[in-house]
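Supplementary material to the annual report.
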Amino acid sequence: MIPFDFEYYKPSSILEAVELFRHLLAQGKNPVYFSGGTEIITWARMNAIHPGAVIDLKSIPECNVMTFQENNLVIGSCVTLSVLSAVNPFPLLSETVIDAADQTARNKITIGGNICGKIYYREAVLPLLLTNSRIVIAGRRGMKEVSIHKVFFQQMRLESGEFLVQIITDRGYLSLPFVHFKKRQIGNVGYPLVTLAALKKDHQIRTAYSGVCAFPFRSIEIEQVLNDPALSREEKIEQAIVKLPAPVLTNAEGSADYRKFVLKQTMSEALSMLEGG
Amino acid sequence: MPSYVPSSYPIGLQVNGEWRTIRVRAADTLLYVLRESLGLTGSKSGCDNGDCGTCTILVNGLPIKSCIMLAVEADGQHVTTIEGLIHSPVLQAFVQKQAFQCGYCTPGFIVNCHGLLSIHPDANEETIRIWLESNICRCMSYEEIHEAVKTVFTPKNAAKPTANGS
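Predicted assembly:
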């Protein structure tokens, strides 16, 4: 049970949502945008966050689209992970999100909520980083479309009052060869030791990771090493490990040493499947 | 723009085929309202964290963990709880196969399996496995649960999940 009250609003347009946020913020109500809401409900139940108002985005049409527009796939932020994997317009993204949480939870969790969440795995962002997807953001100054790399550094960097409306991905990326691994300590449901998503474009392998450090990331330095033709596979992996952007995690899922062991194995599998051709 | 008093929100929802109107706190979970306001105690409170699945209900036919859904989100929706599934073949199969021990997880399993049967009546083994991973049985009755589920599905093949498991 959530031990405090908050107000609930369900705007039907982007403008209404933004105006609501501004209005509620001015009243000191500490508003939050709400999509699937699973993480907000959990944090609130634990008394870890105290929003005075939630703004439910699920009635905003632009946040519910999943369509091709010219050469782009457009996915609304309120599309659930289960719908995304069932419709499957973006196979790497489908394969990534079907490994998040469990099937019933994926009926509630949305792509926007996963990417903007505070729990640091945020695995749905990995395919977006690999495909240089663009993000449509709404805020006080209107709408803007920016590269995922401009707004996602370790986590989404939205300004107060902004929310994620849509994700746009070039259609050309959707049919590229890819691999995805999510390795857990045990079982098929739960947080990862290592999640690795990789795709190959123009004979170059791109990789992105979650569960390795305290944030998901794609590293150009690591990709340069992994694509260096002068190195053996073992040398690539040994040099890539040195270029991780932060200390390797130690938590209930596994120690840093164990994670590095699993990461090396996973990198080797990914390279084996994508190299050549 | 709609504005509500925080302590009391009017909502209307169809529960097990019956239209109900009720006032709820915005912070009330759907599980809490079903149990404490509507007296439908078949949906159990387990982890309250979206992990165990014993609070699973159907919202517009789709399995949802009611501990991670606000009651206000269910305004205007069709909700089915275990109380609405007394004639479900899934429930009968669980009884026949004695697919429970303490029974605390059983409502969630039955509701989830009923949802799967409604959406994918020809679900294969892989799809069944993916869906039922949403529920936990601490008594370890998984073998009997699997036996019960097999009796209501006739999987056509055991290869790939049906429609990506969804």
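The longest strand of chain A covers residues 163-170.
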